[in-house]
UniProtKB/TrEMBL annotation:
Residues that span the membrane, as ranges: 246-263
Solcar repeats by residue range: 6-79, 87-169, 178-266
Record protein name field: S-adenosylmethionine mitochondrial carrier protein
Pfam families: Mito_carr
Sorted UniProt keywords: Membrane, Mitochondrion, Mitochondrion inner membrane, Repeat, Transmembrane, Transmembrane helix, Transport
Tagged with keyword Lipid metabolism: no
Amino acid sequence: MSDQIPSLPAALLAGGVTGTIVDSTLHPIDTIKTRLQSPGGLWKAGGFRGSFAGILPVLLVTAPNSAIFFGCYETAKALGDAHLPAKYEPWIMMSGATAGEVTSLLIRVPAEVVKQRAQASRIPSLAILSDILKQDGYRGLYRGFASTVLRDAPYAFVQYPLWELCKRIWARQQGYPVTVWQSSICGAIAGGIAGIITTPCDVVKTRVMLGGQGSKGHIDRIPDIFRTLLKEKGVRGLFYGVVPRFIWMSVGGAYFLGLYELFKIEFMQYKGWKNNNQS
């Protein structure tokens, strides 16, 4: 059952419910990671206090963001399964995950900008939103869009095919499809590996989003941020926050993909929401 491709309604609902649960409960770890990556460091950004700062924009956009991603991903898988030879399956997964990630960023980046500034400053989210609109207009809400694509597109490109591959290998070894718990373990492996690989992109994205119009010493160009970090901090500077990011992505991968698998199965059973292309 866990290997079946759900219909679009099942994918949208499972993605939306899962995203809301996971992002809200793991928000404190993300806050610590953001503060570690901020120019002032963990303690100047607030330390471990107020770890739920910035939760409001997360709650508002997580459900549609996750629904859009899984809608794109599962649709791509279904189309590939129906019309293309099996040898193209990995490329279909990579393409579907990347397309879903980039599309979902259109609504996630504005929330991410507000969330990260709230995490680093502990100023209320609504006050930060008002300040961004006043200083930079709506364009300010998309500060860091390119750097977020640079981080999340490669992450999705690596994580989801790796998750599927891990499930396939496990199922082949045991002779039957993976359970929800096994899928969750595969999600942890895939998420942790992808998280480590993309940490430098995450550091740059955080620096871009935390900067504002006229901020002292702020660098807007992504290559310049990379060069500055390497010059001032060395390679280690590109991996600030790698431990909480690894924890976040491993636990989040297990939690997120395990719950998604569970809700996917439940919604597929509800009213027979199963992809028509499958027997």
